[in-house]
Structures are given as structure tokens and as C-alpha cells.
Design a protein that fits this description.
Layout: E1 4-9, E2 25-31, E3 34-35, H1 39-51, E4 58-63, H2 70-78, E5 85-90, H3 103-117, E6 123-127, H4 129-135, E7 144-148, E8 159-170, E9 174-181, H5 186-193, E10 218-219, E11 228-229, H6 235-250, H7 263-275, H8 286-294
Parallel strand pairs: 1-2, 2-4, 4-5, 5-6, 6-7, 7-8, 10-11
Antiparallel strand pairs: 1-9, 2-3, 8-9
């Protein structure tokens, strides 16, 4: 069975970076009138990740507070929405701070977001079953929901995903909330959100970079050979090694991006060379460098 996973984060976690491993992400914009301190940085990264094809989309959420138009605040913080952005309304009692039937207010904000995004498909809800029953008993027809339940996976009308832990270690955040769209792959979620019809083809992950050294030079482990560039001594070499490490990470290889060509970089290089039919020597010379940008990702 295929499951698609993602983290949801707020200012309680550090900002997202390229070590994030999944193709979808949920980021908080606001808790009532409180603007999330990390939203701008997280949203900028998500937009870039969608543009370069590392993610197929992302979701912005806000915590519903009675008497506050959280949808309007979210809209003002987002500005122009990404064509692959969905929105989630987080409905929780927060230890009794939110109580009573809030359906009329939440549904009004749901409708406002649907008009703004151009489709109700792109608006979802979140909560545990008890809060959803008591705070939001009357929901829009066809709404899709993320159900929070740690240690169980309850059935619930409209459920498409399950938040199954609030302490799942995910780079770069450490422990955070983790969600799974059970039995749904990327294409399923794209169709559910209505992303497929409007999405352009992903842009190349990075433009090809010319080999920056002579024909006999290479990236390798530290060596007295003047043709070896390890990055361990700073300067241009460090930037060149870092550029190659970033490209291999973008291709899907697990590799540290520290500007130093150490044993891990050598191991990734050898595996890549074997995969692409190159001479397997663990050295990034002109041919391996070029293939890092031009060879088909498999």
C-alpha cells in the first residue's frame, strides 16, 4: 500500500531547509491573531521546492480562534497563493479555550478560502474526532480531513490523512508532527487537491554547471596531488564541492552538504558512477561532474 507522508511545522520548529525528505509539507501561518514567526521563510522555501520539482505541493494552515477571522489573516500573510498550495483549518479545543458549536464561523471561513483559491478541493480541515464532533459538527459537503490520533487510526467521514505522531524525528526539525495519507500516492493527492490540471511541468532542479577546473583535475579525498580539490582547505574548492553535493542531494542521494569531499561523498560518487556506467574511481572529474547534471535520474 502506498502512503504519502509529510510534516507539519510552525515557529516551534526551526525553519525548513533542503534536508527535508518528503514531497509535501504543511506550514502554519497564524494562530488566531498571532502571526507565525517562521511563516515567511518556510513559505519561501516551499515555493522554491515546488518550482524546482522537489515537492509536488504544500499546505498552509491556521489555528481557528472564535471571534477571529483566521482565514483573512492567512490570506493577508500569503498574498498570491501558489497554484500548488492548499489550506487547512486547524480546529482544536486547546484545553477548553475553544468550546461550543463553531460550525457557522468555521464554515464561513471555509467558504472564504474556497473562493480565494478558486476551489473547495484546496481547503481541508484538521482535528481529533472529539473536537471535530463538538466544535465543528456541521461541516461543508465533501470536505477532506486530517484526523489526529496517536496510537490508533480511527475512521471518520471525510478522512484522507492521519496525524499519527507529534514526536516523529524529521530533518531538519527533529521531533515534530507527522502525517500519512494512507493508501494515497502523489498522483492521488494531486487529483484530490485539483493540482494536476493547473500545474506546469517541474522545472529542472538546477542548471548545468560547467566544470571549473582543468581536464586532469578532480574532486577527491584530501591529497598532496595538486590536481585534487577536496574542499578541506577553504576557498574556491569548498564552494565547488558544495555545489556538487547540493546537486547530488537534489538528485535524491543522501549526502552531507558541508563543502568537504570526505568518505561519504566518495561513497556517493562511486555508487553514482556505477549506476551511470562511468569509471568507478570515487573521483569527481569532468565526466562524472557533467553526468551529475545531465544523466537521467533513476
Amino acid at each position: 500500500m502506498t502512503d504519502t507522508q509529510w510534516a507539519d511545522i510552525s515557529e516551534w520548529q526551526r525553519t525548513v531547509d533542503d534536508t527535508y525528505p518528503w514531497q509535501f509539507l504543511c506550514i502554519r501561518s497564524n494562530d488566531g491573531e498571532l502571526h507565525d514567526a517562521h511563516f515567511a521563510a518556510n513559505r519561501a522555501w516551499a515555493d522554491k521546492a515546488v518550482a524546482d520539482g522537489r515537492m509536488f505541493g504544500y499546505m498552509v494552515y491556521y489555528f481557528y480562534r472564535p471571534g477571529v477571522n483566521g482565514a483573512e489573516i492567512l490570506k493577508s500573510m500569503v498574498g498570491t497563493p501558489n497554484h500548488r498550495m492548499a489550506v487547512m483549518i486547524d480546529v482544536e479545543s486547546d484545553a477548553g479555550q475553544v468550546a461550543g458549536n463553531q460550525s457557522a464561523s468555521i464554515n464561513a471561513q471555509f467558504d472564504e478560502l474556497a473562493r480565494w483559491l478558486g476551489s473547495a478541493k484546496r481547503v481541508t480541515g484538521y482535528g481529533n474526532t472529539g473536537d471535530l464532533d463538538s466544535l465543528w459538527p456541521s461541516k461543508p459537503n465533501g470536505i477532506r480531513l486530517v484526523i489526529a490520533a496517536y496510537g490508533s487510526n480511527p475512521a471518520y467521514p471525510g478522512k484522507f490523512a492521519h496525524q499519527y505522531s507529534d514526536s516523529y524525528v524529521t530533518p531538519p526539525f527533529g521531533a515534530c508532527d507527522i502525517n500519512s495519507a494512507d493508501g494515497m500516492d502523489v498522483a492521488d493527492l494531486e487529483r484530490m487537491f485539483g493540482f494536476t490540471a493547473t500545474a506546469p511541468k517541474p522545472k529542472p532542479k538546477a542548471p548545468e554547471q560547467p566544470w571549473p577546473y582543468g581536464p586532469d583535475d578532480y574532486l577527491g579525498l584530501p591529497s598532496p596531488d595538486p590536481h585534487c580539490h577536496s574542499g578541506y582547505y577553504g576557498g574556491k574548492d569548498t564552494q565547488v564541492v558544495l555545489t556538487w553535493q547540493h546537486q547530488m542531494s537534489h538528485r535524491g542521494w543522501k549526502i552531507a552538504r558541508d563543502g568537504k569531499y570526505g568518505p561519504e561523498s566518495r561513497s556517493v560518487c562511486m555508487a553514482f558512477q556505477a549506476e551511470k556506467g562511468l569509471a568507478v574511481d570515487g573521483l569527481v572529474g569532468p565526466h562524472t561532474w557533467k553526468a551529475s547534471w545531465t544523466a537521467r535520474i533513476t
